[in-house]
Each structure stands twice: as C-alpha cells, then as structure tokens.
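Open question from group meeting: does this chain pack into something compact, or does most of it stay loose? Before anyone orders reagents, we agreed to write out a predicted structure and look at it together. Recording both the input and the output here so the notebook holds the full record.
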Amino acid sequence: MRESVGYNRDFLDSYHPNKTFYLSLEERNQLRDIGEFKLTGEFAGTHAKKVLERLLIDLSWNSSRLEGNTYSLLETRRLIKIGKKAKGKQWLEAQMILNHKDAITLLIDFKDEIGWDRRTILNLHAMLAASLLGNRDAEGRLRYIGVGISGSVYEPLDVPQLVEECFEQILTKASAISDPFEQAFFILAQLPYLQPFEDVNKRVSRLAVNIPLIKSGLAPLSFDHVARKTYTEALLGVYELNRVEMLRDLFMWAYERSASSYGAVRQLLGEPDPFRMKHRTALHEVVAAVARSCMNQKQAIDFIDEWITKNILPEEAALFREHAERELLEMHEGNYFRFRLRASEFDKWQKIWNA
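Structure tokens returned:
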C-alpha cells in the first residue's frame, strides 16, 4: 500500500561535511569512548593483530548472514582457515564467505593505502562480488542498468550518468568528514541508498564502514548479533523516508557490542543477556560434551545440530548455535574450568580441536 518513491538527490546534496551530522556530538564522543583501545607499546600492536584476525572471521560470517547465508560461525571458521566447504551447503554460500575473507584482508593489509577513493570502493566491490553476479563485467564497475529493491517501493536511480555523479559526490563528502564514526555511518546510509552497483551494495557498505575505524586504530564493527529483519527495516527507513534514526540506533547498539567483544574500553551494557541466562545450563552441557569427547570442529558442528534438534525450540535454534560455537571458539586455558573440565581433558581436546 506504500506509494513508490524514487531517489531523492537532496538527501545527499543537503549533507555538508562537518556541518551536517547524522550522529550528535554526544553520540560521537560516546562511540569514541567505547571504541578506543587503551593500550600502548608492543602489547598494543599484538592486540591489534589479534583483533584483526578475529574480525576476519566475525565480519565474514555476520555480513554473509545478513544476506541470508546459512553457514554457522564454526562452518565459516573452518572454510576460512582450512578451506573446508560445509556439507549440504550451496557453493554460492561458500563463495560469498571467501569473497568476504579476501575483501577484509584487503582492508587490513592495505589499511595505509585505502581510503574514500574510487579505486578502493570499486576493488572492494569486485572482491565481494567475484563469481556471484551473472555478469562478470559488472564486478568492480558502476551499474549501467536499473535495479529494484526486494520488499520495498523504493526505486533507485536508473540513469548511469547520475549514478556516476552521485557516487563521486558520496566519496568526496565522505573524504571531507573529519570524524571516523560520522564517516562510517554516512557510508552505511548513503551507499546502499544510491545502489551504485548491480548487486552487493550492502556488503560493500558494511565493509567500507570499517575503513575509517581500522585506519584510526579503533575497534572495528562486525555487526555481531544484528538481526537481519532489524537491519532490513532500518535500511527501508532510509530508502523510503530518508530517515536515519533507526539505522543510527542500530549502528550505536552494534558498535557498543563489537567494541566490548574486541577488548576496547567496556561500557555497562545494561541487563545480562537473557537468552544466555535462560540457556546457561544447556550451553555448558553442550560445550563440555564437545570437549570431553575430544571432538574436532566438524564433529562439533554435527553434534551441536543434532543436540539442538532434540532439545531447543526451532525459533531459538540459530541463536543457541551461535552462543555454543562462540563458547567453543573462545575457550582457553584461563577459562575452561567454568565448564567443569579437568586440565587433562582440556589439553587433550585442544590438540585435536586446533589440529
């Protein structure tokens, strides 16, 4: 019943870098407080390396998940680390994740060379779109055809010259923004709204968000725990109404959790996770069973799926799987006892788990 709307050029034209702000000064300061690593010297470099290594897995999985990819976190890790495709999954899903790996590696390895320039964004798209588009010539090139948005009455620009002009204008304005968080959010809203590529636009924006964060030495944004439905609705607010409030709230919420998980300055996150509290005993049972049985990662994936089918409600299955897999991936010599594991059990399992 919603009326069709086209691209509103004024939404971009009316934004003036360092004068117009999607994020208030208070919000930008809050994000900086929770995103800065209070580390110095050699330890800072070591920690930064570990953060970026983890980002490779987290962002590849979460960004793919937001596109409907069905790989679990553990399956994603196995695919990225040892190239093992998950049994029963489509090859396109594996390709999507491996494309994310390549693109994120570009951001990390060339962080001093990339920026808000045409070549960076085009190459980012080419890597994310590799072998996923029907038209190979569209990889790393701005579109020359009209596109539609599924589930929306928004109709993006269909004049190639205007797409090109607005794309350059977005990059010019992003380059001029001095605050890294405002830069990140500007791209998160404006790039998908323009839809400069035939496809893979949202994926480009989610990775591009991390360019100013990585370059500024801030905690990255991995979109952990962001629900696909919520993210879609937040973008619809931008597409159809040019309203950024919901996307802004989602950005703030997601960044706070990312910064916390990567060991930046921790903020009080309010109430403990109710899902984790509800399933605390079950999570401990599953994780301990994997360790005591000395399962490798493939065996753990199969065991968790089978256990969930028998014990967890279907609507809670995906979130339970994520929690269980994170517990396994984050277990180390300093926290295994909370699962009532003996040192000998943990050591024996780790040799197989990390093989």
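Observations to bring back to the group:
Residues 41-65 form the longest helix (25 residues).
Confidence is low (pLDDT under 50) at residues 266-270.
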